[in-house]
Amino acid sequence: MENLARQTTVRIQTAKSSGSGTIVGRQGQTYRVLTSWHVVASYRGDRTIVTGDGIVHKPLGVPRRLGDTDLAIVEFLANTEYRIALISGRSAAVGEPLLAAGFPAGAGVLAVARGFVELLLPKSLPQGYSLGYTNEVKIGMSGGPIFNAKGFLVGINGRGKYRDPGFGVYTFEDGSEPTPELLAKMVKSSWGIPIGTYLQFASSHVGS
Q1: pTM value?
Q2: 116 shares a domain with 78
Q3: Distance (Å, whole) CA 44 – CA 22
Q4: Is the pLDDT of residue 7 over 60?
Q5: Are strands 145-148 and 153-159 parallel, antiparallel or unpaired?
Q6: H or E segment to which residue 193 belongs
Q7: What is the number of other CB atoms lying within 10 angstroms of the CB of residue 170?
Q8: Does residue 48 carry a pLDDT above 80?
C-alpha cells in the first residue's frame, strides 16, 4: 500500500507553497492528476509537479476546477511510465480501513497515515466534503490519495482535524447545522471528497 502511494502521489509546488496530487489517468504521454482546487486555485504559471521518482514536470495549461467542488485537474507530459491509481467502483463504508498519503508542507518526503472511515455524511459540506476519517492529515497533504485496504482510490484528502467550527466549515451545503453530537465527531475527523464526485465529472469535464 505504501509503495502504491509513492508511485501514484505527486507533489505540486511553488516557491512559497506546496500541496499534493494523485495520478488518475493517462492519454498518450499526457498524465492527469487529481488534486484539491485550493492547492492550485492561485495558479500563476509557476507551479511544478514532482513525481515519485523526483523528476520535475511543468503543468500543461491551467488547472480545471470540477464544478464548485474543491477538486481540480492538472496535467503534465512525460515519456516515463507512471502508475495510475485504480478507482473504486463502490463507496467507502464506515469502519473501513484507509491509508491517506501526501507531502506535508516543508517535509519533502511522502507521508502515509493509517486510519478508518469515521463518518459518511448524509448530505455534503460545502465543496463536496462528506468523507470523514481518523487518519492524521497534515497541511500539504491536500490533493493526495485516500486508498482502501484493497488499494483502490476512494477519496482525495482536503482538510485536517480540529478546524474552528466558528468559520462555518462544518455547516452543511444546504445551510443547516449538525447536531452537537455529530459536530463533536466532525471536528475530530479529517475530511476528504469521495472519489465518486470525481467520477460524476470525469466524462463531461475531463474526457475519458
Answers
A1: 0.93
A2: no
A3: 21
A4: yes
A5: antiparallel
A6: strand 190-194
A7: 21
A8: yes
Shared domain check, 74 and 10: yes
Quote the number of domains for the chain.
2
Segment 33-39 shows an average pLDDT of 96
Give the Cα-Cα-Cα angle 173, 167, 91 (nearest 5 degrees): 40
For residues 67 and 185, give the distance between their C-alpha atoms in angstroms, rounded to a whole number: 28
Q: Which of 100, 147, 156, 94 is nearest to 119 (CA)?
A: 94
**Residue 1 CB-density burial (10 A; 0-12 exposed, 13-18 middle, 19+ buried):** middle
Q: 207 pLDDT exceeds 80?
A: no
Residues 101, 81 share a domain: no
Tell whether the model's pLDDT for residue 208 goes beyond 50: no
Indicate the DSSP class of residue 58: P
DSSP string, 86-150: PBPSS---TT-EEEEEE--TTT-S-EEEEEEEEEE-SSPPGGG--EEE-S-PPTT-TT-EEEETT
- Host domain of residue 7: 2-85
Structural domain ending residue among the three candidates 58, 85, 112: 85
Q: CB within 8 A of 13, min separation 6: which ones?
A: 19, 47, 48, 50
CB contact set of 57 (below 8 Å; sequence gap of 6+): 48, 49, 50, 51, 76, 77, 78
Per-residue confidence at 187, pLDDT binned at 50, 70, 90? very high
Residue 205 covered by a domain: no
Same domain, 61 and 106: no
pLDDT surpassing 50 at residue 198? yes
pLDDT at 174 exceeding the cut of 60:
yes
